[in-house]
Design goal:
- By secondary structure, this protein is an alpha/beta fold.
- Helix content is 40%, strand content 19%.
- It contains 6 helices and 5 strands, in the order E-H-E-H-E-H-E-H-E-H-H.
- The protein has helices at 15-24, 47-57, 73-79, 92-108, 128-136, 147-156, and strands at residues 3-8, 30-36, 64-69, 84-89, 113-118.
- The chain has a 5-stranded parallel sheet, sandwiched between helices.
- The termini are far apart.
- The mean pLDDT is 96.
- Bound molecules: 4'-phosphopantetheine.
- 4'-phosphopantetheine binds at residues 7-9, 36, 72-73, 101, 104-105.
Length: 159
């Protein structure tokens, strides 16, 4: 049984994240989307809101479970009996940070492997930060995020 954890902040979830979740379902029996509750950061959406939006946009994907987590990723993976961590790689700029995280996680828990999926070309520019920036200035974010997220963004950032 292959159980994968796909961790992130998802503030908000984008089509790029969704693509990685869908593609993870092709090789994993279960995909746990781990939503980081980082008390040191002040995200636009609370962890409850991010969990809610992820559950909504993945509701058709039967292998996916959305679970919030705090603390170390490897501990969360172990608690959920997951042996694979999935991360998307967009560009060379992601690489250094992702390599550092993967290697740290491997030092902490050698039996947990990190797998990188290269982001599809059409989403390679996309990030949650860019989506918030466009939305903050009243731009159209429909190419970047699912409909349910657009609605939640409107509530957060009324124009
Ligand atoms: O979507 P993000 O913000 O790039 O995701 C980053 C995330 C959640 C994968 C990373 O911050 C994380 O794993 N945080 C948990 C704390 C941890 O385990 N740190 C040690 C690994 S360097």
């Amino acid at each position: 049984m292959v159980k994968a954890v796909y961790p992130g902040s998802f503030d908000p979830v984008t089509f790029g994240h969704l693509d990685i979740i869908r593609r993870s379902c092709a090789f994993a029996d279960e995909v746990i989307v781990g939503v980081l509750n980082n008390k040191a950061k002040s995200p636009l959406f609370s962890v409850e809101e991010r969990v809610k939006m992820l559950r909504e946009v993945t509701k058709e994907l039967t292998k996916v479970k959305v679970i919030p987590f705090e603390g170390l990723l490897v501990e969360f993976a172990k608690q959920n009996q997951a042996n694979i961590v999935v991360r998307g790689l967009r560009a060379i700029t992601d690489f250094e940070y992702e390599l550092q995280m993967a290697q740290t996680n491997h030092k902490l828990e050698p039996q947990i492997e990190t797998m990188f999926l290269t982001t599809r070309l059409e989403y390679s520019y996309l990030s949650s930060t860019i989506v918030k920036e466009v939305a903050a200035f009243g731009g159209d974010i429909s190419q970047f995020v699912p409909e349910a997220v657009i609605e939640m963004m409107k509530e957060k950032m009324p124009q």
